[in-house]
Predict the structure.
Amino acid sequence: MVILLVIALTLYLAGAFYSIYTFATKSKRPDRDLKLIIGLGFAAHTAAIVAAWQEAGHFPVISPKEVSSFIGWAIAGYYLAVSRRYNARALPAFLLPLVYLFMFVSLLLPARAEAVPRMLESAISASPVTQIIFPIHVTLVIASYAAFAVTFVCGMMYLIQERELKARRLGANSERLPALNTCDEIGYRSVTIGFVLLTLGVATGIFWNNQRDGRYWHNDPKEVMALITWIVYLFPIHYRLTAGWRGRRAAWMSIAGFAVVILTWLGARALGGYHVFG
Amino acid sequence: MGIVLVGTSHKSAPVEVRERLAFAESRLAGALRDLVDCEMISEGLIVSTCNRVELIAATPKGVHATENAVSRLYDFLSRFHQYDLSPMRKHLYHLAGPAAIKHVFRVTSSLDSMVVGEPQITGQIKEAFQRAQEAAVVGHELTRLMNRAFSVAKRVRNETGIGSSAVSISFVAVELARKVFEDLKGSAVMLLGAGEMAELAAKHLLNYGASRLLIVNRTFENAVAMAGELNGEPVRFEEFEKRLPEAEVLICSTGAPDYLIHPYQVRRALERRRNRPMLLVDISVPRNIDPAIGRLDNAFLFDVDDLESIAEANRAERKREALRAEEIIEAEAEQFFRALAEGDLNAVIGAFRQQVYEMAFSELERSRRRLGDLSEDQEQALRVMINAIVNKFTHPVIKQLRDSEDGHSPYLSAWRDLYHRDPSE
């Protein structure tokens, strides 16, 4: 299993370098090779996760080590999905180093830094319902983070490209980045996908709460933050549909939204509560 | 097999010389057959455009024996055009070996063009190559050379920004549109006024995928006439505001003395477009689009100075990218030449060994009668022995050939002199 992870890590690193090189040199080379590299890395990574699942007997996304690796996996998968449809130059140059970073941190972290949190024991051992719900809940939430990360990157790219155009000069950055419409479209699609995933993720969480101890809501920091995230992302989607908000405003919203995501992911841990993993 | 080249271009010769040396389309096939004499020149190719004439040829005499082939090219050129070249020599250049290969790569990759990076030349050379193929005067060597040249041109295009940016105002409009919309499929272009530059920009936009062209003019008849010409839709000036929201790109070029398009109109249009972005290009002087529009969200306004400064910056960028392209070409040309020289060398070595074998085996045949009947084992042993002797004998010569820079070995020359044999024949 470790060998699979090392293979994935190596391929991600190669992909990150490749995409940064393409970005720096403004190369117009088609990214077929890159997709192949990341595709293979993703396959190895998936195999590693499946193997870990079998070995541990529970869904292997509990310790920070596992969560970090899983986030990398989700972003890599999301990149592959996006690149099938769009020729989003520059996007991999931002995403793939991120993927590599998560993987690298994951490999550095100790295998099991802390005991399995008490509440998660139920996820591992208890009823069949929770055994199913736990992977679904975690996968949905983390996949939504990956989608929001892509929205965030698209928002940044949009703002940079827009600034170049408004300054009425086309610098090197303008050439490296995708067109405004492409940034906007990938960003909007990603935020929609992320929002749906998060909604389902929160819903499964609530369902699981109820299954476990008959309460839907605990006012746990992570629960509250997730709710805030959900509301923050509701705005751009709502206003896009009703008032045609797009472009710069949407880009700023996606950046603000991602800040909240980071807070939810890391900050909630600092605030305590039972949701302390991941 | 060597590559030689004689040519003249906008860099070396004024148009008076180039026009004298150009090959008319109708005479090209005949010229090609004339050029290739199958003795000094085994394959040939003629590139003749308004900026250059290049004779590219392969000679069977080996990579290092090209002088005669070059003078043969000069002879051909002056004979064909009935033009005494001797006073013109300074306007012509001749190249051989690696330099010729590099030149072919540079020209094909548009590094030697008047506007560096313009893509036309690659197509022109492809056509010249095709004509030579039709005349059946290109074979293995030039095919290999030209195929490599085309793939180098592709590499240069992909890996450097040499051809990526627009260096003329009308193309800058296309570049801007692609920065905003990615591709123009399904988009509409509105043309206000009838400036020549604006018309050209609109044509480019249509070529790059814009699907509709709306033409607005104060004089509706003019709009109708232009629409007929450009395959667009004429729009009455009174309906301009109503139709504006349909346009992704607005190109404005009228003789009006002041602003024709005001912020409120564009703001309204953007609202109707649900904030889908608009690109506004003002080519008129004095300007016709209020510059305040540039501050509206999702409206991107460029005036003629902006376009010119982008074109200028792109030209400078191209120069920088051309340096990177030169590096690619340098490496590719060297690699290609080395492969060519190696092929030559292998042919020489093969022939040399073959000749020594033949000498050894003919001795064997002469001794057969005295040897009597040989068993299969004995026969085999003799062959092995002869092989070993030939290898021992040829080894130092081959080693020296392989180690030499230019494919020459004094051993081989000595052997040639002693036995009156020439492995290259």
Q: What stands out?
A: Residues 122 and 171 of chain A are 56 Å apart (CA to CA).
